[in-house]
Specification:
Blueprint: H1 13-19, E1 25-29, E2 35-36, E3 51-55, E4 59-68, E5 82-89, E6 94-99, E7 112-117, E8 128-132
Antiparallel strand pairs: 1-2, 1-3, 4-5, 4-7, 5-6, 7-8
């Protein structure tokens, strides 16, 4: 399956460039210390524009999920069923992604997950995916 590709914006460009190097970046506010994801131009906690990028650990916990039994996009046709999830990163922010590497019936809220990458796209962008953690 070829997942739909993003169109990077000025606020997300650094994140998508890092995915080509197998890095998942989050933003951290220099003013209040809050970590955030999805990339923004200002801190969602205090409103400061003093944001730095830092690599995330690639570890998280499944916060919630749904099993898509019908394709939610034409690119997913034939890949059903698949899991659309919200993952709470070890660093705190929550991200949306797909859980792979296990049967959809094995997916449970609270399960530990780890980051894996889809195949590299010619433009250097890789999509983050999540699988059950090895330990």
């Amino acid at each position: 399956m070829r997942r739909p590709r993003p169109s990077p914006s000025p606020s997300t460009q650094a994140f998508w460039e890092a995915t080509g190097k197998d890095q998942f970046l989050i933003q951290r506010c220099r003013a209040c210390g809050a970590a955030q994801f999805y990339p923004k131009t200002t801190c969602t906690t205090c409103g400061s524009s003093e944001l730095d990028w830092e690599p995330a650990s690639g570890r998280g916990t499944l916060h919630t999920f749904t099993v898509a039994r019908r394709a939610t996009h034409p690119a997913f046709a034939g890949a059903e069923p698949y899991v659309v999830a919200i993952i709470e990163l070890a660093e705190g922010p929550r991200v949306t992604g797909n859980v792979v590497g296990c049967d959809v019936d094995e997916v449970r809220i609270g399960m530990p997950l780890e980051l894996v990458w889809d195949d590299e796209d010619p433009d250097g962008i890789r999509l983050p995916l999540w699988q059950p953690a090895a330990n």
